[in-house]
Amino acid sequence: MSIVAEYIKLAETVASQIELPKVSRLYLPDLEETPEIRDEFGLLFLESGTVAPFYASLPGALGSLWETFPADTSIELELLDLISLFTDRDLANKAIALGAFNAMSQFLMARAGLLPLREEAGVNMGSGKPRAGERIGMVGYFCPLIDKLLAKDVEILVLERQPE
To answer: pLDDT tier at 103 (50, 70, 90 boundaries)?
Structure first.
């Protein structure tokens, strides 16, 4: 059995035992044509208040996601329907499927009493938003995020394999 099939089977098992919240909102980064590589992340928001990130910079994925989910449209999607998109060949569908699986995982952690990503806490494990003078470490150079943190005078330590 492939890992994709295992993810889908796991999600189906969870959904057969508990009611999963629906996706209530989707955040997609702006479509920007830039010469440099920019790593962008989208966010899935669940009715429960759970938030989960997903990588939106796979080739052609962000444009396709914007076509499927235009701005200012309300959505009400089943997590299991999105997770089933893991089997699709389209990279945008695979990206949103991974976001849905992340959202399910965050919801389950919250249900178990663990500290999840939550909309009201910002998207940094509930510790509040970074402030000037704080130091943050990350693996991988994620330009849009780094630009936002630098604008807030946050110190950033980056581990990156590719020097460019």
So the answer is: very high
